[in-house]
Amino acid sequence: MSCVEIYAFDKKGNAYCYGKVKNSFRGEMAVWHMLEERHLPPFIPESVKGYSWYQPEMTSEEMQERAGYHFSRILCSSEKELKVIWDLADNPEITLHERIVLFTTLDDCLVRKEDIKRVIEAFEQFGGDTVALPVKLENIQLSGTRKRYQ
Questions:
Q1: Which of 7, 21, 57, 95 has the highest CB neighbour number within 10 Å of its CB?
Q2: Whole-model pTM?
Q3: pLDDT of residue 146
């Protein structure tokens, strides 16, 4: 199971683990899936093109109905296909709040104390039907309000 570790810094600049969000990959996948649905063309895996029923003129809905599952770049587990989603973080055509939320799912994301409020607002604007986002949002809110100095 994956987790996100939230680090804080004391007045001397020393880092300490402030908290952890368990199963963060579930939330990341939810964000990636929502952004894929909102901003990218339908995904058709190369393997589907080899099926006997495949016809190039079929709509993505027809192909998914025929295959029995929803096609997603996330499900194919190809870093090349996932990168198409991750690259949305640098796309100025995507709303700022969506880019902020996407950045929080990427490795080595660092949020400065003065930006915590912007991150919270971005999560609130992002929306989406997932349980994982409110949990992550709650942890971000706690890190912005609770002070701990050593």
A1: 21
A2: 0.73
A3: 43
